[in-house]
Amino acid sequence: MVKCIKHSVKGRLFTVICISLGVVFPLGAAKLLETSDGVVGYSDIAKLPWCSYRKHDPTRPVPVHVYVPPETKTSGRPSDAILLFDGKDLSQWEQSQWKVENGYVTAGSGNLVSKQFFGDCQLHVEFCIPQEYKGPLFNRGNSGVFLMGHYEVQIFDSHPDHKQQFYPDGQCAAIYGETPPLVNVCRKAGQWQSYDIVFTAPTFKEGKVSKPATITMLHNGVLVHLNSVVHGATGHMNVPGYKTHNAEMPLMIQGHSCPVRFRNIWIRPLSGLKKLKL
Ligand code: MG
Questions:
Q1: pTM of the model
Q2: Mean pLDDT estimate for the chain
Q3: Ligand 1 center to residue 155 CA distance, Å?
């Protein structure tokens, strides 16, 4: 306990120093800061009620980077998985501006939304952030996997070689605006990466959430979330909360002004398996 308090005081001092050395950018009412470590975020957004940090807080501890070697081949698909994209066509998805070529699909304007609806699931997604991307930090590899169209696992180029980094709750593999990954497993832009997500859907009773969603997840084969609670629908600069929705909703992949590539997307709905277990 004593150790913990000491660490907390140290952390506060560090925070003050960082902000005093940082650069302040105006952005509407919110102040965008860059810490002396190159982490960009906001200082004056509401505190997240379940932890001691503010939303998009640049002084939140930055997950340590863990190196994993480049992917040498695409992963296999289990026989009971629903194939959502095999590199050839987007027949499982609503019409979009996304383009299929060379065995992958490239994010265009707007989002990619599945035709089928899902609740509890195991989801595999492979993505590649373009090496040649030149643009603002906020779009650097920005995309995201929106479970049920509401709950985003962020896709971003958070490789530690970059001088500037996004706030921890917005970095790659974060539950966006809520919870950073346990570690940063980003490969360099130009290399294929994978997410394997186990998602349990929220349940609702009398217009209120009765059980929040949870996410357990591997990034490039490394655990980054273990039963992380999802505190509500994804939003920017807001305190997340739930709004009632159906038990199954479409999967969505975000278009965010960066031509991120995707291949080999499959999903295993888990409701049938849960019934068997009972
Ligand atoms: Mg995103």
A1: 0.87
A2: 89
A3: 6
